[in-house]
Amino acid sequence: MEFTKMHGLGNDFLVFHGHQALPDNVSDLAVKWCDRFFGVGGDGLVFILPSEKADFRMRIINSDGSEAEQCGNAIRCVAKYVYDHKLTDKESITIETLGAGVQPVSLKVENGVVQTVRVDMGEPILDGLAVPTTLEGNPVLDRPIEADGREFNFTAVSMGNPHCVIYVEDAPNFDLGTWGPKLEVHPYFPRKINVEFATVTSRDRVEMRVWERGAGPTLACGTGACATLVSSVLNGLTDRAAWIGLKGGDLYIEWNEEDNHVYMTGPAAAVYQGTIEA
Ligand SMILES: N[C@H](CCC[C@H](N)C(=O)O)C(=O)O
């Protein structure tokens, strides 16, 4: 199967186009192909499929084989792919996702190549039971959670996929590897959860590191950046637009007061094309 290796701020994927549906053994293939030693290496597989409701449809499989409802960095890669491969000549397109409906995407094109992508990520879901968590509350805001004897406070936000945002002293140096996996599978989260550790440095900047559900530590998480901005506004820590500083780079996130939609702006890059045996 032919693929294009792409990334959004180092959150990297094998991108496939030209298929009508996911391969039957896509979970096994994700585990095998995302392995960084025995496979191509990646945080997940992304399939660009036909859609009856939008210009294109995206499905995302994490490196552990689980399918996610949404993926911010991947949707920017999909937008770049379809324009650069001349599957569309529009600079405003729509992409259907499993968990966030149809999303408008606008492309910033320079010299005929997509440089940055702005995605309407839709409205955040704040009702605790809908994120989902087992907790009542709309929102579930700054609530205690205990893992292995240590207590944190978290805010729950869904962008179609679930997120748990926790504020810490120094996110870039936080012990992500110890606490991320424990919280990912905490009993509060029936579908597990993406865990963001964040440090607010000003009203328009937050440093964040992410332990992703089904993928572990990644260099960037688009939906996680959106969840972190929404959480920071709800907790009174930032304005409604801010830079989210990730290990792989920065994303600009806005939570529009008029339409309640979250907008994400950032880059997408293609690295190489290849073929791989199923
Ligand atoms: N691991 C995530 C999916 C990928 C999200 C992330 N890579 C992004 O850019 O939003 C989940 O299971 O919800």
From TrEMBL:
<dbReference type="GO" id="GO:0005829">
    <property type="term" value="C:cytosol"/>
</dbReference>
<feature type="binding site">
    <location>
        <position position="161"/>
    </location>
    <ligand>
        <name>substrate</name>
    </ligand>
</feature>
<feature type="binding site">
    <location>
        <position position="62"/>
    </location>
    <ligand>
        <name>substrate</name>
    </ligand>
</feature>
<feature type="binding site">
    <location>
        <position position="11"/>
    </location>
    <ligand>
        <name>substrate</name>
    </ligand>
</feature>
<keyword id="KW-0963">Cytoplasm</keyword>
<feature type="active site">
    <location>
        <position position="71"/>
    </location>
</feature>
<keyword id="KW-0028">Amino-acid biosynthesis</keyword>
<feature type="active site" description="Proton donor">
    <location>
        <position position="71"/>
    </location>
</feature>
<feature type="binding site">
    <location>
        <begin position="72"/>
        <end position="73"/>
    </location>
    <ligand>
        <name>substrate</name>
    </ligand>
</feature>
<comment type="pathway">
    <text>Amino-acid biosynthesis; L-lysine biosynthesis via DAP pathway; DL-2,6-diaminopimelate from LL-2,6-diaminopimelate: step 1/1.</text>
</comment>
<dbReference type="GO" id="GO:0009089">
    <property type="term" value="P:lysine biosynthetic process via diaminopimelate"/>
</dbReference>
<comment type="function">
    <text>Catalyzes the stereoinversion of LL-2,6-diaminopimelate (L,L-DAP) to meso-diaminopimelate (meso-DAP), a precursor of L-lysine and an essential component of the bacterial peptidoglycan.</text>
</comment>
<dbReference type="Pfam" id="PF01678">
    <property type="entry name" value="DAP_epimerase"/>
</dbReference>
<keyword id="KW-0457">Lysine biosynthesis</keyword>
<feature type="site" description="Could be important to modulate the pK values of the two catalytic cysteine residues">
    <location>
        <position position="212"/>
    </location>
</feature>
<feature type="binding site">
    <location>
        <position position="194"/>
    </location>
    <ligand>
        <name>substrate</name>
    </ligand>
</feature>
<comment type="similarity">
    <text>Belongs to the diaminopimelate epimerase family.</text>
</comment>
<dbReference type="InterPro" id="IPR018510">
    <property type="entry name" value="DAP_epimerase_AS"/>
</dbReference>
<protein>
    <recommendedName>
        <fullName>Diaminopimelate epimerase</fullName>
        <ecNumber>5.1.1.7</ecNumber>
    </recommendedName>
</protein>
<feature type="binding site">
    <location>
        <begin position="212"/>
        <end position="213"/>
    </location>
    <ligand>
        <name>substrate</name>
    </ligand>
</feature>
<dbReference type="GO" id="GO:0008837">
    <property type="term" value="F:diaminopimelate epimerase activity"/>
</dbReference>
<feature type="site" description="Could be important to modulate the pK values of the two catalytic cysteine residues">
    <location>
        <position position="163"/>
    </location>
</feature>
<feature type="binding site">
    <location>
        <begin position="222"/>
        <end position="223"/>
    </location>
    <ligand>
        <name>substrate</name>
    </ligand>
</feature>
<comment type="subunit">
    <text>Homodimer.</text>
</comment>
<keyword id="KW-0413">Isomerase</keyword>
<feature type="active site" description="Proton acceptor">
    <location>
        <position position="221"/>
    </location>
</feature>
<dbReference type="InterPro" id="IPR001653">
    <property type="entry name" value="DAP_epimerase_DapF"/>
</dbReference>
